[in-house]
Amino acid sequence: METRVAVIGIIVENQDAISELNNILHEYGKYIIGRMGIPYREKGINIISIAVDAPQDIISALSGKIGRLNGISTKTAFSNFISKAE
Hints:
CATH topology: Alpha-Beta Plaits
Number of helices: 2
Radius of gyration: 13 Å
Low-confidence stretches: none
Strand content: over 45%
Order of helices and strands: EHEEHE
CATH class: Alpha Beta
Number of strands: 4
Strand order of the largest sheet: 2-3-1-4
CATH architecture: 2-Layer Sandwich
Shape: elongated
Largest sheet: 4 strands, antiparallel
Number of domains: 1
Structural class: alpha+beta
């Protein structure tokens, strides 16, 4: 199986969705390389970036689940680097 490295950018506008977002991220935890969150208090939003290494369909499923949450926007950037899963 091949994996790709990607970054998922997330903007949280609905604070009530954070718990559900964290549950989804926990579910996909084995694929997450790192996570950075920045609270933008002046605007009342949170900006989160997630670095992942996973098969492309897993990355797309994760991004899709996050994007369907109310008040959360997401975009994914894939690297061209493809490797064999260990």
